[in-house]
Amino acid sequence: MILKELTELNGISGNETKVMEFIKSHAVKYADNITVDSMGNLIAMKKGSVGKYKVMLSAHMDEVGLMVTGYSEGMLKFKTVGGIDERILPGKRVLVGDERIPGIIGVKPIHVQEREERNVNIKIKSMYIDIGVDKKEEAEALSPLGEQIAFYSEYQELGTDCIKAKALDDRVGCSILIEALKNSYEFDLYACFTVQEEVGLRGSEVAAYSVRPDIALVIEGTTCSDVPGVDEQSYSSTMGGGAVLTIMDRTSYVDKELVKFLYNLGVQNNIKVQYKKTTTGGNDAGKIQLSGTGVKVASISAPCRYIHSPVSVMSKNDYYACLELTKLALRELGKEETMKRLLNIGGEKNV
Fold first, then answer.
1. Is 5 one of the annotated active-site residues of the chain?
2. What topology is assigned to 3-63+166-343 in CATH?
3. Distance from the CA of 97 to the CA of which of 74, 137, 140, 178 falls in 20 to 30 A?
4. Reported pTM
């Protein structure tokens, strides 16, 4: 598992270069062809022994973060890049720009807050980043407008099975795609490491139009809400419950036959598998599904607590369930009868 190295790289949406270069250094060992398009998507193609069909795997390289938008003396003012709960930000350690300048997200100290200020959530407009300089000119020289800011968070083992890291969404998927490239297939495999998912699923749309796959599997880290204060019927997914299969979310309605195929494959092979029980959020499947004349898509995700924060938590067993289910699915898709059934080739269609 190369998840430690992947999660400790910084790759805010729109600046995924370091993540892309790391992935490329591994993918080049297994792929027959690697391209990086104008958006920054890395597409690693592995030629199949038959090559009759094209299967796309998609995982996004980018992560949520912050961006410098102004200055208050020597302090940096900022906005979010991607969806972040602003309530988690005060006191967090960050790294500014490619030089990884250390900083702290600060707010007006509680000792000088008015009583009414203590009873409301602090907004980003009231926060700043302290990088240890006093003058605006110093701050501008170190951190110009538009500079990106990543959370500082080291990969760490928790308990007997879990890990803590930033960017599990979606370095989990990137790690699994690299593993998938190590095997050989009957179809042409396109492992697409996409950009700018967190700001509108932008890279996947371009990649899908380029590949024009017959079937696409999106490998993700998804929300996990099995925590105190949330009723069980409101859980999105459960840590330890295995790979998560989405039926519908805000951006896509996955192919029912494909998701049923994946669920049964997991059950039949003793791989833990669960359905996502909420329809919130979205991922690259939304754009891939609508590309060309339409693509059959499904998502395989690892449940991650505290997603879009510096301290996401994931079970390693869930990670391996996603990996094994992905590998089994690819093996089965190499069978002509499976592909024909899922694509409804030779079957009747309503017109």
1. no
2. Aminopeptidase (3.40.630)
3. 178
4. 0.93
